[in-house]
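Researcher: Please predict.
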Amino acid sequence: MSLRRQLLAIAILLIATPSLAETREEPATVAFARMSGKCSTLRVAGRGFSCRAVSFYQTEIGRANFTIVLDDPADSRHIITFSGDNGRRQDNTYELPVDRMLLKSKDRPKMDGLPVPLIETSTGMCRQLGSFVSGQISSIACHATDQSGRTYEVEFESDGSPVTMYRVRPSRPTIQ
């Protein structure tokens, strides 16, 4: 699958993914950014991976999410998301306290054909160098530990390409 198609699939998954309570609608995604580069480090519960794609999205209530599509030969739907509220920007640095990890895989139940994430309460931090406003992100580093002691870590370095930013305008479903 081409990188462009993978990123489009990520955007669709993020916009259409149910929230913590599967009966409650997730706040709409209002901003989506994709970045190109590579992950020098990507570990999920002690297991190393490489990444296929890295993105950022924010919901209408302000929850921010760094999403990484893993290059996992055994699971083409393996995605992790570092999620948190109350991110802080100072100069050219953005820090996001992580309070949950969203874990998607081929084995997760589906709703409307899309995987429902396993939500793991976690503690951690993401740090982004660069700015979406300027269109340049140089790096992202995230780490988190869930309540079972499993650790998640990513270190992403940009290839210098500008960030592609999308504003998403939610609309009512047209299918009844």
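Model: The CA atoms of residues 77 and 105 lie 5 Å apart.
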